[in-house]
User: What shape does this take?
Amino acid sequence: MKNISAVISGHKTLREKIVEVLRETIIRQKIRPGERITELEVAERFGISRTPIREAFRQLESEGFLTIIPRKGAIVSDIKEQDIRDFYEIKGVLEGYAARQAVSRMTEKDIDRLILLNEEIRECAQRQDVSGMTRAHNAFHNLILESCGNHKIQQVVAGLVRQFLRFRFYVASLVHVEAILREHSEIVEAIRERDADKAEACMVKNAQLGLEVLLKEFASGDRER
Assistant: This one.
C-alpha cells in the first residue's frame, strides 16, 4: 500500500486521514472486534511517525471504535446488545423529533428528493448493490435531519451513527428492503400531508425496524462465533 502521506487531499491533516483509513478498515471488518492494533504496526504499514497515529487512536477511542489499554495498545471495540438498544432508542427519539420539525420546513423539491432516494434504494436492491443501498438509505435520513432546523441534532445523530457504521449494512440489506421502502414511503406521505404527529410516529417505527433487524443479525453473529 502506498505511503499514506501521498494520498492526503485538500486541507485534511495526517491525523484526519489516518482516522479515515482506520475507521473504514474497522467498518469493513478487516479488523474485527476484540482484535489488537498497535501504533508500531500502523506506523510500519504506512511509513509514518507514531505521533499522528497516537492522536488518531485517541479520536477513534472517543468515537467508540477503539479501546486503548495502557502499555498494551488498542483493541477494536465490541458492541453489546444493550448498546444497540440504547442507540436505536436515542436515534428514534431524535429522528422522530427531526421529522416532526421537518414537516413544516421541507419544500416540495425536498420531498421529491426523498422519493428519488427511496427509488434509488429499490434500484440498488435490484442490482444487489448493498453499498449503494446504504448510501441512499443514509442520504434519505440525512435529508430529513438537515431539514429540521436543529444543527445540534444533526451532529448528535451523526456521531451516534458513526459508531454503528460497521453494523448498519445489516439494516440496509437486500433481505429487508421491502420493509425499508414501505416505511420510508409512509414517512414521505406524512411529510407531504404536513402531518407532524404521523411523521414522528413513522420515524420512530422505522427506528424500531432497524433495532429488530440489527438485534437479529447480532444474535446470529454471536451464534457463528
